[in-house]
Amino acid sequence: MNVHDIAGLKVGLDYSYPRLRNQAAAYICEEQPTNFNIQLSKEFLLARQKESPHLTLENCEYIWTGSCFYHYLVHFSGMLLHASAVIYNGYAYLFSAPSGTGKSTHTQLWCRTFPGAEILNDDKPAIRILQDGIYVYGTPWSGKTSLNLNKKVPLGGICFLERSMENFIEKMDSKEAIGRLLNQTVRPAQMQDMDLLLQTMDKLLTGADVYRMGCNISEDAAKMAYQAMKKD
Question: What is the pTM of this model?
Answer without folding.
Answer: 0.93
